[in-house]
Amino acid sequence: MAIHPTAIVDPKAQIADDVEIGAYSIIGPNVSIGAGSWIGPHVVIEGHTSIGKNNRVFQFCSLGAQPQDKKYAGEPTRLEIGDNNTIREFCTFNTGTAQDVGVTRIGSDNWVMAYVHIAHDCQVGDHAIFANNATLAGHVRIGDWVILGGFTSVHQFAIIGEHAMTAFASAVAQDVPPFVMAHGNRAVPSGINAEGLKRRGFTPEQIRRIRNAYKTLYRQGLSYDEAKAAILAEAGEEHAELEPFVRFFEQSARGIIR
User: Fold this and answer.
1) What is the distance between the alpha carbons of residues 254 and 157, in angstroms, rounded to a whole number?
2) How far is 227 from 239, CA to CA, in rounded Å?
3) What is the full DSSP assignment across 222-240?
4) Do 184 and 255 contact (CB within 8 A), yes or no?
5) What are the beta bridge partners of residue 49?
6) 75-116 pLDDT, tens digit each
7) Which are the catalytic amino acids?
8) What is the pLDDT of residues 161-198, one digit of tens each?
């Protein structure tokens, strides 16, 4: 390990042999950090926090602090971070609460820019990009490949489906279906993230079906239940690109942005 002499690492912490820890960082006793990870200077990692392999955590981050929830009473809740994440300056990720699953989870291959806050019990998937100052309130769920524009704020318990994207300074008060682009305060839909889907290898025909699902949801004058039934009827093995809608409809309870 390349641990700077000014860093304070509790002897009970589980640190892989090749982890680098920068000057004045503090690592608590219930922390584990996987191989290949780099922890910059002035980082505090505390609580019951596990960090996987090949992560880069930049200066002044606070990971694993107690949840900002007045009901929290010292329960041993956790923060779990996967592999290959980049976490830039001044990010704050909190542990979970006993009132939910007790774990805040961040998946793998995420790019998290400066000043991002991920509150207690949030569940973040893989390959997400959070631009500067994006903020998740408690209990938020973020699907794979989601992009949050700078200063996006997401209401507690909201869900943002896979491949969705928000514009700068979006205020998300309800659930955002997969593939949808959203903007504004309060956030409203503005088409699908077609360019992102092209870059991820979706075929023109798959994108056409996803766009048709969007039109069913927002442009045909159907009720939410009617639109949902129509999309579910279209989804299946032959149209696997619509499966994110199936997963979203199973979870969504707050209503969708309109």
Assistant:
1) 8
2) 17
3) --HHHHHHHHHHH-BTTBG
4) no
5) 31, 79
6) 999 999 999 999 999 999 999 999 999 999 999 999 999 999
7) 120-121, 138
8) 999 999 999 999 999 999 999 999 999 999 999 999 99
Range 179-188 burial, b when 16+ CB lie within 10 A, else e: bbbbbeeebe
Contacts of residue 78, Cβ cutoff 8 Å, sequence gap at least 6: 47, 48, 49, 50, 95, 96, 102, 103, 104
Q: What's the CA gap between 88 and 58, in Å, rounded?
A: 5
**Distance in angstroms (rounded) separating the CA atoms of residues 45 and 72:** 19
What residues are paired with 104 via a beta bridge? 79
Q: In this structure, what token pair is assigned to residue 53? A: 């392999």
Residue 104 phi/psi, 5-degree rounding, is: -95, 125
pTM of the model: 0.97
Nearest-Å Rg of the Cα atoms of the chain is: 19
Give the C-alpha separation, 17 to 73, whole Å. Answer: 34
Pick the closest to residue 106 from 157, 69, 143 (CA basis). 143
